[in-house]
## 1
Amino acid sequence: FSIFINMLLLAMNRNFLVADYIFTVIYSVEMTIKILARGFVFHRFSYLRNAWNWLDFTVIVLAYLTLAFPFIPGLSALRAFRALKMISLLPGLRTIISAIFKSAKLMMEVLLLMLFVLLVITLFGIQIFKGVLRRKCVRNLDPDVNVTYEQWSSFVQNKLQDDIDINVCGNASSTGRCPANYTCLSDVGLNPNSGFTSYDHFGWGFVTSFQLLTLDRWENCYHLILRSSGLYYVFFFTVIVMFASYYIVNLVLAVVASSYEKEFKRKEKIKKEQEEILELRRRKEKMVNNNLYFYSMTFRDPYDMELYSSVLMNFVGTLKTRLHEKLCSWTCCAPYLKMQEKLKKIMTHSLCEGCIICCIFLNTILLAIDYYKAPYSNFLNQGNTVLTAIFAIEAFLKILAFNLLPYLSNGWNAFDFIIVMLSFVDWGLTAANFKSFDISVIRSFRMLRVFKLAKSWKTLNVLITVIFASLKEMGNLTVIVVIVIYIFAVIGMQLVGKDYLNKAAFPDNQVPRWNFTSFYKSFLMVFRVICGEWVEPLYDCMRCSRIYFCIPLFFATYIIGNFLVLNLFLALLLNFFSGDTLTAKESNNSPPLSTHIKKLLTVIKLKRFSKHHSAKIQPNEAVEGSNVKLSQLLQLQSDDKYTHNNAKIQEILQYLDYFYTAFFNLEMLLKLIGLGAVQYFTNVWTLLDFLLVVNGWLSLLSSNIKAFSSLRSLRTLRALRPLRAISRWEGMRLVVNALIRSIPSISNVMLVCLVFWLIFGIVGVQIYGGKFYQCVDRNGQRLSVDIVNNVTECQANSDKGFKWVNTEINFDNIMSAYLALLQVSTFEGWMEIMASAADARGIDLQPQTDANVYSLLYFVAFIIVGTFFTLNLFIGVIIDNFNTVHKKSRKEGALVMLLTEDQRYLYDALKRLSKVKPIKQIPPPTNIFFLFFYKVVNHRYFEPATIILIVSNMLFMTSDHYEQTEVYSYVQNVINVLFTALFSVEAVLKILGLRLYYFTQAWNIFDILVIITSIIGNLLDSVATQIGFSPTMLRVLRLARLGRLLRLVRSLKGIRRLIFTLIISVPALFNIGILLFLVMFIYSILGMNLFRDLPRNGSINEIVNFETFANSMLLLFRLTTAAGWNDVLQQLLVSNVQPNIVCILFMSSYILISFIVIVNMYVAVILENFNQAQEQEMAGVTDDDIDMFYEVWSKYDPFASQFILYEQLSDFLDDLKPPMRIPKPNAVKLAALNLPVTNGNKLHCLDILRAMCCVIVGNVKETDPLKELQGNIVERMQKKFPIRNTMQTVTTTLMIRKEVKAAMTIQKAFRRWRKRQRLKLENMRAEKKSVHSKRLRRKASRKLQLCFSVINGKDGSRP
């Protein structure tokens, strides 16, 4: 509660110093209690060992800093971070934040790659476009006019006349030209957009490059550079958009989605375990005897809180039972009960449900066909009243049939009951005639009844079910979005809010509509930035405030809000919606009509063809006439505005049209004969050819026969002829087939999205219908309310040139509302729509600035529901379905889909093994002189020194700028020569050390080419002025220096992995790019035929038009990103060249196909390949591990023979790095690997690597699909390693271990036997020795006795 109050006080943007002290004390007391209870940091469960306490600790430290140093500018804005304490208090938010933190490592790698790409783009722009945007058209002065330097400087700062909106120009070919009486001059005035858009130095170049990368208003920079430098620089923007922007920005999505999916799975696993534990507890509780309860009541503990809680639960259960008896078990008379049973049967009958559904459809139609000043509005109101009464009667009858609580226990019934109650409120307010309240808002809730169609519409039912399942996570994510918006809104108010009050800082001396002056406006401003529009608000901020506040604020808001938080929306949807989610419920239904058609065609085929015709006839590619089709495309693009009125060219084109029609008729006839009629007309691609041939005949008839002149519009369909190329291009056909197979799921979701948009559209018509009209003067400028208040006053002053006009995009009817919502969802033209809504005062009233500013919450709600959720849902289904179908359509894809997760990991690991082979290690030279250089270039400090040199060169290149002094330029050239010399020395050292092996490595060849180009560039730079060398070519040669930056990729492992994802995506991305080019080609031909005579007004100029094929392609390339499509559409609508419906269909269909479908197929490929790279890490075997394996292998096999000796195996496995390393002693583990040993006691690299992969992945159950896939892998391996097939396996490491073990056992037994034999011999010797000693002792004793007897005999005494 204290956090919420603190957030409210901060949002008020007032200095409550006492409140700051109070809240700081509260947070400090909380922290102190936790520290006293748990300790600070020194043991495992202490305060700072919990990551969430880090957040609280950081917030408290920042609070003390703001109180201790209030004089530091901007430090008080850090108080906004107190809102982060909400995250640690709400458990549901921790999953999302944990997903963000766990993706920190990958996210940093992606941001590092983004920084690297931005550096390359910026340095490229500085070298090529430095100073070009200051070439401007300046009005010619009269010959007799003399001006001073100050007057001239002031004169050239002025813009062109009001009828010319572009003043950037160029003097080279294909650049923009100045109008009459104007001259293109260089170095004139400021750069465009108040000097903020340029490549004159690294700072503004970096901001401009970031603008191009994020595609925010990039069309402005696109057209400025094309006008000033030439149309051929479109390739520069193509690379940026297709490879830099789409790839890197979507890598952020891939990282966030992957991390969220892992965190979600971990949470679900924990939740499942907890549920199992709770289930076990419930079972134990059921086993307790009920008598124990009465015993515990008799001998109860007065402090037993669990007992009191159980008593309370019993009381609530008893109360609920009694209420159920009163409200749900009405015991009435028997006739009433019989009537209730009959009524229940009637209300649950399918006919009754069908009638209600028809009423819902009718109600939706009545609400949708209403529009501003509709002549049948009264009839529609009466119809809506009747339908509301029908729904009310339905609810009343269901309550009678089911009783009240059972009726409300059904979610759909409760939902319907709420809508009926709101309808009654609508009636009451209408009867009371509350003029101050907008009843149309409540009336719009009737549209929610359309969700009742989910009972019979299974796709909508499944979708709503999944939506409710994800509602909790979606709510948590919404809270995160609100917290992020709140933090940056408060920071914006504290840092730059007051600066916006300086009106003189802005061009029109008015405070911009989007600012940070209040919390509500700051909220809208941050919301706008998060939605992707940050450039124009940044320009306004830099005009009035300090640059070191504005740029970090807007960059941080965009990166955190858009890159992280908004990508979580799509990550959540991708996690909850799989490719089969919306079709799983339909799998048990009867087969669709297409299945019956296929069966029928199969029967026809069996009857038509005999056995000897069963072989499928393949069309000969030579007969396809690819060259003729290519020349036909050239003919189509030649028919432009400037050749259309040339009679000779038109005659040639007509004869070519005859030839192509005849040629394709011949092709059709040959295919009919070769394939047969059935096979020809049942193939989609040949059927497309047939339709195009028919269209060709109709076009010829309309051109030559007056009776068929009405068919002349069909000539436009000639633009569809390039579709023939799809069937001839294998990769593109695979992409299109995958897209076609995804159409059922995509169309279902698209219909559901249209329903959501229909609801918002009808609400928009009710709220804003007829309110966008305004009174303008002769110049089209809106008049002030003080001058004109309403339509009557405007029409009364028509003699002054006042006109009461409507905006082109409005909410007057449902179709206009759909178009307006499409612009809002693509974030193009939505500022103008929201401005009209914020200024609307009412019907027939003159708009006033910010008169209805809180109505913008309607657009905020639509963007959250209709764009962040609904449109991202549509995009997510496109991505997931395309990936699923694309996997199945590929070779072996169907079998891979049958594998388990562990089996797929093993299959992917084994599949990668067949792509890499051992490489030969460069042998050291025998010559002592070359050996010295060999050791130098292979020293561990040599490569880091080179990297430091490259980084230093890069940092020095960033110092290049426009209008630098001669001394600075001289010093810069000297340093460039020095760097070139150092890199040349590096190359010479490598050549001396590696000899000819230097040229066997691609990076070395690249380095030597960069050095040679740099040397040539330095030489030409010194003599360019003397020989008149082209400055443009000199700049191109300077670009070779940028090539050195690419060497950083080789050293940075994280960036190398991300770029590897791009490399493996290139084939699929190329196919999608070709499909996109084909769509652009078709629409460019259509655009030339439909809009070639479009007048040059507004956004249509000499570059932006449909007059020629080149200009059409340039414009459509821009529209592929949906950039400024609303401006082009507005010019199409006001020009009256074609009917409005044609203009809208042309533009909206192109945006739908290119921007929403094809571009998201591009995203799908990136996500899929990134997930494959992540699965490598989850499986435990990555490409880096395989490279490490072969790097260590080269030490033991320097000549790449693919074999090592068995004696080397133990040391080799010990030298590997984890996870492949098997440290010593490893004899037992080597035997467990059971590696095959070939002739000569050798082991093959592939056998070792395969065994290591199987060990790392773990035990995997083998199934038939896995065995079949493994068989395919073995075949590939045999082709990749043919030498392995020539070597015969003689034994295995397990057999060798067994043999060694057996030999050791035999030797041990033999030694024991020898020992026993030796002991026996020693024992025998000992026994013999003991017997001999006994004999000796006996002899000695006898001799002794004899001696004693002799002695005794002489003395006469006894012994």
## 2
Amino acid sequence: MAEPSAAEQRWLQAAQAFARRALPAREGPGGAAPAPVDAVLRCLRAAGGGDLPLGYSFTSVSDLLHQQSTPCCSHLTWSTNEFKEWARQGQGALPMQSSLPRAYLILVGYLTDGRQEEKEKLVDGCLYVKDNTGIIPCEILHFELEWLESLFLFPSWAYVPQTDQGAKGYVEILVDPVPVNALPKKVLDTIPVIYPAAAEPLLASRIPCKKRSKLSVAGELAKLSPLLCIHHKTFFFLFLKCFVSAVGVPVLVQKPNQLAWHHVFQLGHRYIITGLSMSSLKKSGQRVFVTGVSSCLLPYCAKQVKEQPLDSAWQGKSPQSAFPEASVQFSDSSELGVEQERPGSTKESKIISYVGTVTKILNAQAGLFELDNKVCLCLAYQQLLNSAHGLRPGACVKLIDVHLLQKPLVSFRFIVLGACLNSTVVLKSFSRLSTFYQPTVSSGNLYLQLLFRYNLGMPLYLWLVSLLETFEERFSCFFGHRRLLHSSVHQDRGAAEKFLVPLLQGMVSGREETRDIYNEMLAKRHQCPLQQYWTLDPPCQAPSLSKLCCMAKQKSWDDFCPSRLLSPSEVQHMGTQELNRSLAWSYCMFSAGSFQPRVVLLGVLRVSSRSSSLHLQDKSSTLPCVISHKDGSPFANTALIGSLLQVEAYQLVVERFLQSDFPSWKQLANVEHVREKKNSVYVQFYFEDALVLQAPEVQIQEGPRSRNSSSLRKKDDGGSASELEIPEAKVLKLDDPKPDIERNESCQRDQSSTGKNSCVSRLFLVTQKEGLMLRNYQLLGEGNGEGQELQRSFQATVLWLGRPQFWSRPRKTVNLPELEETNCHGEEGMTQQEALLLFMGKSLRWFPFLHLDGLYRFIVPHCSDLEVFDKLCFPPVPARFLSRSCCPICLPVPDTWHLQHETWISCLTERQLAAGSVLTGMEQRISSIPEVLSNRFTGSLVSFPGEIVERTLCASPKNEKPSMSLSLLQQKGSLLATDHSVKLSVSVAPSSPVVLDVYIAATYLQHLWGLLPGAKVLFQNLERKISRFHNVYCTYIASSCISIMSLPASRLPLLSSPAGEASSSSLVFLSNLQLHLQNMPQARILCHLSCVLTLSVQWVCSLCNSIFKEGKCTRHNPPCPSHIGVRQASARVLVEDGTGEALVLCRNQHVAAVLGLSLLEWEAVQNCVQSRGSVSIQHGEATGTGCVEEPEDLLACYLRSLCRSPLICRPILLDFSLDRKPSKIPQPAPLQLRNFRCGEAEFVSQVQPRPSLLCLNVEEVEQKALCCLNSERIRRTSSHC
């Protein structure tokens, strides 16, 4: 024999080293077995035709598990061309996937059916490859029992790691392994057996099982159940049937050393099982054959068996067969037929067989796989104890007796093949593609636990999977997969379970059934959860926030109709600017039920220092939110930041911003006039309607974080809005960032002496809060102030309560020891210290939590200096400008400080109020709307609550426009033009006639949410003003602030009803008009129309409001290009009801009603006016009214005659309101001299001036109705006398 080369010697040395490390010699029956390395080399030479594979290297199981991180395959005996052809064939189903890369590795090991755990062999039904370095699961298509515990060379195999790089993989054995040592051959004697036809009646025999001897049964394998593990016992069932009929008997295999049989069995093959006895299942009572310790599995050979006659111990009564021939028939259909669908009705699933290729792993944990790009295979109803080894894209599977379900879920696009416990799944060939392995784990699997707990059918299970997939995708970046999908057995439920369990309980309520797995496998009539199904229309959905916003925006514009936003009676008389301004800003509100199916809102509560507002966030997007309490108190709980909330009662608001150039109302249906559409979406809800599914990982009440612990801030890296933060309010991050202010150094120096967890806290009361604004704040040490940009900031005036407190660790206080300390020592004057807190930068996140009359606590982490609050303070202006020593000091709030809300001043006990006597009278002066409107009110800054009854976009007055620099800075993020203002009409109650107008410049609106009709709002520090017409109104200024106290009702009309369309006004007298209008916004009178004082009918230009004549505008300097006119009309009439007189102003369509003209007659009058431009008529009594009567023509004569006609003077029902704003300050009116004539006598008397009324509706009164109304009026007058 020739001497080996140097390369071969090195290779042999490596082989020897591998054998010593991984393949120790085993003791044989005759002493020490030969060295394994020699036998291995002999096998390698035989496989390679006498040559050693010098291009290959040995790999141990440990090396494979810890060093191989990508899928690979090894083919010891293949040429390069053979491997390429093998790889090419494997890419047929998935041409976009790459094939397995070839690795030149030699795998040698023992095949075993268990693994060692705590010095005991644990048998779970899986096969393993092991050596002295470790053990690894394996899958093999053909297996023999003689292979167990034998050393094998694996010529072709593939290693498949998990998708999780830190997890271990498994080995796919592609061809039969080669035994290193010759396997012993068993010599079998003739075996006496019985066949299923004779054994089947024995299962119904009444003879006790203990008196019977063991049997050996021979038959063809007809059915094989999956491996099951119930109560820590692993077992499986099989059916042996006769060779000539379908009569079969069930056999239970549950001995640990026999679980490997499951890998040996092949459907249609013939076997002998020895040592069988009979047993009854406890729960179902069914009788089956059971293997014993001495039972053996043998291949059937007709020459080695003889039929055993039954002795007298086995004779007994033989009832009718429990397994008739039809009960075990197999379906050989491989086609997916299309069944006729009956929506909503219960359907029967078909049982078929199918062969297909795995093309995608839909959800490994849920047991969902895609076959042939068109079918969904669901294995969730089986346990998959082998963790779905081998089910990778590219693998071929054979499905036997699976259920075919067509469209079980409306939104599910696949036909579903469901495998129950009666189904068999056979892996036909392994995948040749380089795909990772996604294990299906039963323990802690929330998908499977909920499936089995509620015995869900396929439609409900697929809906559950879709909800869980969306839930996990949205929030795993915040809480991690394990915390989010934590399934509880003896502990608290995780977030996903809290969300899903109530939904499932509502769906399965009243039809809960326990799954009987034994009947499912053994009953003569098959019953399982997949047998019947219906097409489920999901009751709810939980889309991502980005998808929800898109749905809301799409729905808002789909429902958008410009003509519906405007009153039909008013839109015809609007000019172009007024028309387009009325359409520029609108909103629509959606609830959960506005979507189909209804939408459940889920999101992590976060706060943004950039926008200083609350948000709900998931992985896809953020959604601004407004949170209120049902008792009217503001939301201030900073401990909830970072919590996962579920809300089902909410209002999703879409603010629509439209830029349009509609010439007139006639073109509203033409979308070409819409130049730009924008949206702003936010949600508002009551905190009482929110459910906390998951709290943050660490809360301040539970103590601080360690320095090495991870924070939620790190988990937010995958989010789409990085400016959203969980402040130290929730997660107290002890890694102290670089301080922004140098004076923090004194605090930082003391950390080492007191420990990492110490902190300083101080209690304070908020007495005033100002709004978010760009201000010219400049901290000390930042330069001389030249060229400094304005900073977004807000400020609050607070009152310090007690001394600073030193805490060894953060904690939640209960009794407010600062107040108790003040009471004990009697140091009341010490707490009379005010401070002006300045919030800038990241401290702006506290803006939505800081509210008036709230008691809060600042917590300074990593600090022991009790003077830290004094050291960081400075005067608001340089000392050389100070003229008063009592000016409050300023404290810029550092970014690292934590804010904790304690309570409200109204919630303090009497003892606490007595202790903190300085709190008495500290509440800010809150006025009422009537007080603000009173002429006795003297304040310039006012605070008051009220309900928004109307929201109107109007042009800003010239004197109210902000400066250009401020506008440019503030319009970033604002969707309204800076020359617009919003007028909020605020009232004490919706039906109250007392209304106060609040004007807010558009530049301020980007920080304000929830200003909708119906919302109750607390306005703080508004500027009270009086117009030249003596109307009181308020404006939002830099020091103003708004808090939402209550949300609007769920259903609000988009528009108020046009005046007079649905009037329910009370019938009153003119004599007591003022008394009635104090309690109601409008009223009704039965009156007599005395005369028409003035009448004006005109056409005006839609652009410039000049007279529009003969189809064009009459303005010449500069010329107006408009070719569209708008018709307008007004009339002032005199009415009386026997108790007094009044002047009534009528506009547009009410003028025709006063004149008694029909619609056609009024249309003809307006068309005649169009050629002239305008016509004005005045009565002789109305001198000095400013109306200029037109020269004589036919139209003027007609209108004058009509106004003076006796037909005009008639009884009418008039709905009206006062012709002035309710906010107008009443001016003293002098008495007027009036002439009265009675016969020939004439009297002169002083009378009150006639009230001015605004017509809302005019109704004609017939004679019969007039009598009834007069009778009612007389009766009511008598009852009041």
